[in-house]
Design a protein that fits this description.
2 domains, elongated, two-stranded antiparallel sheet
Amino acid sequence: MILPAVIGAIIIAVTLWEAFETVVLPRRVARRWRVVVLFYRATWLPWRATARLIKKTKSRETFLSYYGPLSLLLLFVFWAAALVVGFACLYYNAANTGPSHRDFDTCLYLSGTTFFTLGLGDVVPHLRVERILAVCESGLGFGFLALVLSYLPVIYQAFSRREVNIVLLDARAGSPPTAAEILRRHTGPRGLESLERLLRDWEHSAAEILESHVSYPSVSYFRSQHSNESWLGALTAILDTSALLLASAENTVSRQARLTFAICRHTVVDLAQLFNAPPRRPVADRLPPAELNRLAAVLAQSGYQIRDDEVLATKLTKLREMYEPYLQALSDFLYMDVPPWILAQEITDNWRTSAWGRIAGFSSPGRTEPDDHLD
């Protein structure tokens, strides 16, 4: 009876290969049908559906924030269980082809104690092939533990680097970040120079997000510390800002805006492909003509002039069509809100608030008005 051995070998081979592609291989795997992909689909879709039933935004975001870390732990448990079952099938086949006979429950117990190197000794391998399997499985158990211990720091380092860039964007772009606030807060003396530096920094930040999230897709499910911030929202604000700068007249920031737009668009397109989320148009236009006029008026009050003609609207529409469908696809799949171009009403930045209240009277960072409280 060789069928249990074949099944066990297949389970072990598939599990080890999936673990290699997920943890060790630092690139996107193009194969669509993968056990890890099915695992995340089977767990994320019900989790997201449950989150939709939660009405309060903060409670919903708190619930969603548990999924990323918890999915990693469940994935490790799933891999360990699969390896234990796979070796149990091999033990069962070896035991029932020799003089000794064991039921599958005993073989499963032997496999578990060997994989986790418990060394209880109440069930021991007798045949030569069983001893070879026990040595291989115990070594694999040590390797699995090392894999887990090395994988988690990499994930959390990637998450930490991403969140640092998002937090730094808070005072420069508002909470949530918007293109209107980015441009409004980078007016005045040396404003364009500061804006160019911000776009250059986010050219590197977007490249880091692309590399880390493609190599380790589980990081995409990790939520930011504040419910009104996300890596997708930050990329949206930077893309909107770059698109508006490119649609306007040429200036000193245009070259950097073009480079930042390219890498940010590359990031959202590749991640949409990674999650098999086809591009889709937003249900509502994010920047209808009335909102574009309001955006131009708000920026004009701050001293930033943009072209108010048909050429701007046409060019801006073409640029938006290059990235907004992919943003919408990622927003729907990951259940992350895409911020608007300009807020309907002023919202207090996260840096101004605390559990004991909020501060008032401070001008926004980058504004030219004097700050009476600091005089």
